[in-house]
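re the bet — no i am not wrong, look at it urself. input seq straight from the record:
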Amino acid sequence: MLHRAFWCIAVARHSQDRKALAGQKDPTACHGSALPGCATLAESEALCRGVARHYENFTVATRLVPRRLRQHLTNVYAFARWSDDLADESPSPSEAARGLAHWRQHLESCFAGNPTHPVFIALAETVRQTGLTIKPFSDLLSAFEEDQAFDQDQIRVRYATRTALLDYCHRSADPVGQIVLALEGCHDPELISMSDAICTGLQLVNFWQDVKRDRLAGRVYLPRDDMDRFGIEETALDASRASPDLIRLLREEVAWAGECFDAGSPLVKRAPLVLQPAIRMFLAGGRAVASCVERAGFDTLSVRPMVSTWTKLRLAAAAWCEITTAPWRSRV
């Protein structure tokens, strides 16, 4: 366990860096260059921990994997978090697009063995130790780039079919599971397919939980052909309550997410042992969100269904108990 003071230093440094970055007009320059004082591997890894420290759910999740994997997961998370911030926090869509393009250059340099930005200095060490490939990282970045392309062209985010939405999920969600499995040396195509199903289900149920929030942000993830089957116009999403037709549609969409969870559930017992508790918790968490949507009557316009703190604690406690009693615990 790292000393509390070390965590504080990492967070403080990250906070100062981000404040400095916010003062820059060009995200390409501010995000693309190596940050002062973060050139060494140790300092770069500390900055990544600082990024992750701000997000409680990630901190809890890392406690469910062996200590030897935690820094690697943190480095991966810092890459994804920074990518997301470039897409969403830049002053304008055009600047975000430039920042993401520069970020992709850094990604390619990282996998070519020439990292310069601290996030990629840390990630390069993970790549060196685990043999990760660039593809899942490139896929993740392409999803951020797609979101930004919609914004830059002033085109609202829409998906005509489930196939189109699944393509987005395959890039925005599935790479996370692929990376986690690869960190433990798991490259079995069947297990990766199960992981993809769980990650897609998590992404889908999040969409159905946030229909109202996404609509206010100009994004509609309900496939157009599904809406047409139920005779639903987009303006129906502006109402304060879901119509009977929209409720029926959301019931079907939540069932679709459930089918994804069912398809991926065998992974809980077939994944590497050290990953099973975390996978079990995330799968249970996804099902819990789906249950919340169901209990809300599938009306996610009038309310955003939330998993209770008690349920979150129960799921985390169950996973932790599984870890503390596991026979492999003393070996990791």
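see?? Residues 1-34 have pLDDT under 50 and may be disordered. told u. also The two ends are 14 Å apart (CA to CA). so pay up
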